[in-house]
Amino acid sequence: MKTNIMLVLTTAVFSITAHAAQDPVPDIIFVPENAKVIEAEQKRRGGFELEADVSGSSLVELSEEAKAFYTRMGFELRRDRSDADDVELVFVKEQESIEIDIELEHNEIIEFSVDYETR
């Protein structure tokens, strides 16, 4: 019984610690609805990095959603490269740039990453 209680408490503390280590995601970062955020980190010089796993979507769907999101925010699409298992998008607005990489991984999981930088 004590072992079970300790296991539950240890698991709970680890979950809270792991979650607390992630920074809050700012509104400038597009996060797909069905994304599981793996890493969210504020950069030292004002930028932000996000990495998430996405299931139940496609590279094309995620790419189109990201394009629509950043276009509405006034960003210009500067790069749009894609192949069968990878999409790279770069958006620019005044002193801000956003690079998105969408990669098809194993088991139909898509790795979605965003790198936001200010100049």
What does this structure look like?
This protein is α+β, with helices and mostly antiparallel strands and 119 residues long. It has 2 helices and 6 strands; from the N terminus they run αββαββββ. The chain has a 6-stranded antiparallel beta sheet with strand order 1-2-6-5-4-3, with helices on one face. Strand 4 and strand 5 form a beta hairpin. About 14% of the residues have low confidence.
Structural class: alpha+beta
Q: Could you tell me how far the N terminus lies from the C terminus, measured between alpha carbons in angstroms?
A: 56 Å
Q: If helices are DSSP runs of H or I spanning 4 or more residues, what is the number of helices?
A: 2
Order of helices and strands: HEEHEEEE
Helix proportion range: 25-40%
- Rounded mean pLDDT score: 86
Q: What is the rounded Rg?
A: 17 Å
Residue fraction in strands: 35-45%
Low-confidence stretches: 4-20
Q: Output the strand order for the largest sheet.
A: 1-2-6-5-4-3
- The dominant shape is globular
Q: How many extended strands?
A: 6
Main pleated sheet:
6 strands, antiparallel
